[in-house]
Every structure is written in C-alpha cells, then in structure tokens.
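[Q] Does anyone have a clean structure-token version of this?
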Amino acid sequence: MTILILNGPNLNLLGHREPDIYGHGTLEDLEARLRAAFPDITFECFQSNHEGGLIDRLQQAHAQKIDGIVFNPGAFTHTSVALRDAIAAIDPPLVEVHLSNIYARERFRHSSYVSPVCIGQICGLGRTGYFLAVQYLTGADR
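[A] Here you go.
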C-alpha cells in the first residue's frame, strides 16, 4: 500500500512557525514517525508552497494509482477552488488534515473549499490527525 502525505504552504516551517499552535516538531520528524509507526506502508511525502505544485502532485497520484492521500492544504483550504476541483477529479481517497482546530480560530478559517470532496476531515488533534488518517485509509478503523 502506498499513501501520499501532501502538505501545503508554510508546513515546511513546522517547528519554527507559531509552535504554540503547530507544535515544535518539524515536518521531517512527522514523516519519520509515520514511517516508523506504519512500516508496511510506503509513504510518498510532498510539500509545496505553490498551489500548482500541489495540483500537479494530486494528478500524479491519480496516474500512479496511489492508494490514499493525507492532505493538509494549509491556508489553501480556505481559498482554493482549483485544489477542490483537482481533488474531485482524482480517484484516490483523500483525508483532509489540519494540525489546529480551524473552527476554533479566525472566522476566515472556518470554511474549507476542499472538505466537500474529501472522504473525511480531521482537525485540531495535532500530528495525531495524520496517524488517524493513515489508519482510516488502511482500513484499520473500518
């Protein structure tokens, strides 16, 4: 099984950017912990600060027949119809993940363009959300 861990803008700054909200661990730490926790899964990890790069990677995942996607679109969650359309156009099941509870933050963060085309959304559980999304995609919780 192959799962794509896809991260949007500013997530490359994890560990440095607002650690009181996003924690002290880096994106590389998170990726290493996922690989250690799920040794039988092949993880492909990609982060981009560019909307087009994320769209290209989603389309590539579709062509590659990736089994599932865990996606933290960052601020694009609240702004990108293009990402929403890309997710709707591909086959792999996709779980939207956010480290913080977007519904407990600024009002503009309360809406997600991508949620309606995802199989689920996990927010506010920190890095645990990524692990729960992977568990779901592997069928461990179904």
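[Q] Thanks! Anything notable?
[A] The chain has five helices and five strands.
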